[in-house]
Amino acid sequence: MEHYFTCPYCWETISMVLDSYEESSEYIEDCEVCCRPVEIRFRFDGEELAAFEARRVEGNN
């Protein structure tokens, strides 16, 4: 599933593909615009995206 979110550093809209086969996931991915690390957390309830969070990594202002 394609999901759009706002980078917590540069405020650009970013698109990423989330795998609904993973019930939940947490990882760090660099923003494709400003290259800063963004902590991504998401959770699916079946095929529906139940929660999504993109936040700054501690120590990276």
What keywords describe this structure?
single chain; 61 residues; mainly beta; three-stranded antiparallel β-sheet; two-stranded antiparallel ribbon
Describe the overall structure.
The protein is mainly beta. It has one domain. It contains no helices and 5 strands. The protein has strands at residues 2-6, 13-17, 24-30, 37-45, 48-56. The strands form 2 sheets. It has a 3-stranded antiparallel sheet, with no helix packed on it. A two-stranded antiparallel sheet has the order 1-2. A hairpin with a 2-residue loop joins strand 4 (37-45) and strand 5. The radius of gyration is 12 Å and the shape is globular. The mean pLDDT is 93.
What is the number of E strands?
5
* Structural category: mainly beta
Distance between the termini: 29 Å
Number of spatially distinct domains: 1
Determine the strand fraction and express it as a percent band: over 45%
Radius of gyration in whole Å, from Cα?
12 Å
Helix-strand sequence: EEEEE
Task: Specify the number of helices.
Answer: 0
Oligomer: single chain
Helix content: under 10%
Structural shape: globular
Poorly predicted ranges = none
Rounded mean pLDDT score: 93
Major sheet: order of its strands?
A: 3-4-5
Mind summarizing the main beta sheet?
3 strands, antiparallel
Short description:
This protein is mostly beta strands and 61 residues long. It has strands at 2-6, 13-17, 24-30, 37-45, 48-56.
Write the layout of secondary structure elements.
Blueprint: E1 2-6, E2 13-17, E3 24-30, E4 37-45, E5 48-56
